[in-house]
UniProtKB/TrEMBL annotation:
<keyword id="KW-0732">Signal</keyword>
<dbReference type="Pfam" id="PF00496">
    <property type="entry name" value="SBP_bac_5"/>
</dbReference>
<protein>
    <submittedName>
        <fullName>ABC transporter substrate-binding protein</fullName>
    </submittedName>
</protein>
<dbReference type="InterPro" id="IPR000914">
    <property type="entry name" value="SBP_5_dom"/>
</dbReference>
<feature type="domain" description="Solute-binding protein family 5">
    <location>
        <begin position="266"/>
        <end position="585"/>
    </location>
</feature>
<dbReference type="InterPro" id="IPR039424">
    <property type="entry name" value="SBP_5"/>
</dbReference>
Amino acid sequence: MNGGQAAPEQTSTATDGTGLSRRAALAATAGLTVSTSGCMSRLQDLITQQNVDQLSLTITTPPAESDRESTRIARRLEEALKAVGIDISFEMRSGVDFHRAVLYDHEFDICVGRHPGATDPDFLYEALHSQYTDESGWQNPFGYSNLDVDDLLEKQRHATETDRRDAVTNMLEAIAREQPFVPICMPDEYRVANTDRFADWTDGHLATRSGYLGLEPAADVETLRAVHTDGRPTENLNPLMADYRGRGTFTELLYDSLATDNGTGELTPWLAESWEWDGAVLDVRLRNGCVFHDDEPVTAADVTFTYEFLADMSSGDDEGETPAPRFRGQVDAVEAISIRNRDRLEIEIDAGHAAGERALLVPILPAHIWRDRSDTGGGLGNGALAQGTPTAVATNNVPPVGSGPYQFGSRTEDSRLVLERFDEHFTRRAGVDLPEPTVDEVSIDIPPSQETAIQAVVNDAADVTSAPLDTELVDGVETSSGRQVFTSTPWMFYFLGFNTRKAPLGNPRFRQVIARLIDKEWLVENVFHGYARPIATPVTEDWVPDTLAWDGRDPETPFLGADGEVNVREARAAFEDAGFRYDDRDRLRVRQ
């Protein structure tokens, strides 16, 4: 054949033994060669030009005005990735939009931000377990899936107290190898407080309810004036929304939990007067006579409802479960609940003691209000919150009704939130030895910047900066006899997150190389001005194993360079060792 046409009939009698003349055979062979060569050439072009292209990624981060450190980390990463041949675009989103894109819609490639962390490493169970890959919130927003890591997450959760440290170490080492996200540093937390108007600032962590209770006000001081540089608490007071809630500080003032953590990881009975643990069941006794802010009683039925509702906001009406975007990993430890009487219940725990106690930290919701929020008539914008969103998530929950030490007073959106003391709270009872609300109200004002917030305390227009200060501002704060800078134990951390649902971000070798483009020591000194500690694992210092202890460099993914500058030759070699290739223009290629 030749160009798809049959060769003409030959008259010569000389043949090649098949009845086909030698001339015809040669012609056919030539035609086949030309035809196949053209097809192969086109096929090669198709593979090399259409299916392989320069790798392009987008870095998503909050804007500088709300999180300067995240933006600077992301810009530094952008420079490094461009230097090693990756096409990078940069996307800044508002605080709510950033969390919605990452936590709900999973519309990101790489993100840089702050993770709320926790005092116990069990928080990594919900952060990384593969059963949560399709859920919303801080439940595995990275879409990470590894059965071996799942096993380790479960082992540490079920380990006895004597064996748990070894189980946690194995889990942390596996996560450090896999790098589903890159923990960068834990910043020290500094806040400015007025010591003339209030004493005892150091008794509680200001990221928890304990920081605002038990303070000793000066004579005639009736209001605690906080300045908070995040307007979200004035827009939305829904305790279940991951995009509006950070550490949940004000949620803890509005809602009680069965136990409380003052920031050290040690739990104290709170709404629960006591509990007993037999290794499988928590026998919980509630403080009697407690009421919600609308005077409805708090009972064991409300506690039971809360755990069932957080596990499935549809209350069993949908074909599948609809878990809450927050507290999922904590309530997942609860296997069943049995009500013994109005103030007593037994919580069956399918986990070890640590995870069982963490389950006691969720806010207790009034069933008579939240039960009607299980319908799916709500909706918020586009993406995961647009269709079939339960009202429980769509509502802004204003006014909130809890049973906490403070109740909702008023709000002016993006300007002020006022909480009023709830005098019926159990902490105000005689004989209860717990920190209590000591002032009539807490006002939370929203200044335009942290500089303005600091100046408000300096000028005696505010009593405390409730959010941690940007580290670049710490040295500039003027202290006096009536004003001090206080530090709190950190457990929040900065991280680089990968959307492992997308190639090549699902490849652990690729993630390992990216992790090695981040000079954590340099970032701590130049972005955080020394007010942070670089980390190889995202847990508080008392849980860091020796194998992952920081000793001037990352023990698992050491930086490919020096003094913040990437060694491009070494980085390219690392990508090639990981199975990736460069073109003749030094662009990292990826098969589309």
